[in-house]
Give the backbone structure.
Amino acid sequence: MTDTITAPWSSEQVAALEQFQTASGMHPFTCGADQHSQPPRLVPSHSGWYCPDPACDYRQDWAHAFMADPVAWPKPFGERHGPTPEQAREAVLAARGQGLERLHDRLAELRTLKDGWLDGHGIAPAANVIDFAGRLVTTLPRELDPILVTPTEAGGIQLEWSDEHGGHEIEIMPDLHLFLLTVEPGETP
């Protein structure tokens, strides 16, 4: 889907990658290690990404090329926040079943999260974000099952699934903006 850039990176690229990590509105690159004394958001350097936790040695030497160009960052999908009531009603009627029930059970679990849920960090998703996610999953085709539903550190919710077209993520931001990432088969995210 996207071109990648490989370290070493220029000072301008490092500054843009840092800005992407903190201000793009998209989910940042994070370390996959389980235990951290610091937030797991990766930090860019001239030689690549590193985990800020002193006890972690995770490194990554690539980024999506658009991440180093703020003009190329994906933009929010306008002011419309979700399906119309008619679309939601039709989707619920069409998508009744265990998959939808399981997704709503997972969203109910997310309502029990408290701030600090991620090793002392992490903002719990607000009720309006969870409600929006509930409306959104009813609009997705049934054949996407299973859909992984996870909270984000910033108080959003991320939906992930794979199909014959690749891996897909929809991130619902705390302000209800949506971001979509699709990685085609054979590409590295």
Summary: The two ends are 9 Å apart (CA to CA). The longest helix spans residues 11-23. The beta strands are 4-6, 43-45, 48-50, 59-60, 62-64, 148-151, 157-163, 166-172, 178-183. The chain has two domains: 4-72, 85-183.
